[in-house]
Amino acid sequence: MAKLVPQGEAPLSDQVQVRHDKLAELRAAGRDPFQITKYPQDSYSGELRERFAGLAAEENSGCVVTLAGRMMSKRVMGKASFAHLRDLQGDIQIFVKRDALGDESYAAFKKLDIGDVIGCKGEVFRTKTGELSVRVSEVVLLAKALQPLPEKFHGLTDKEIRYRQRYVDLIVNPEVKDTFVKRSQILRQLRHFLDSKGFLEVDTPILTPFEIGAAARPFYTHHNTLDMDMVLRIETELYLKRLVVGGMDRVYEVGRIFRNEGMDPTHNPEFTSIELYQAYTDYHGMMDLVEEMMKTVAMQVCGTLRISYQGTEIDLSHWERMTMVEAVKRYSGVDFAAIDSDEAAVAAAKEHHVELPEIPTKGAILAEFFDAFVEQKLIQPTFIYDYPVENSPLAKRKPDDPAYTERFEYFINATEFGNAFSELNDPIDQKARFEKQVADRLALDPASRAQVDYDYVTALEYGLPPTGGLGFGVDRLVMLLTDSPSIRDVLLFPTMKPLD
Question: Which of 228, 303, 374, 497 sits most deeply, having the most CB atoms within 10 A of its CB?
Answer without folding.
Answer: 374
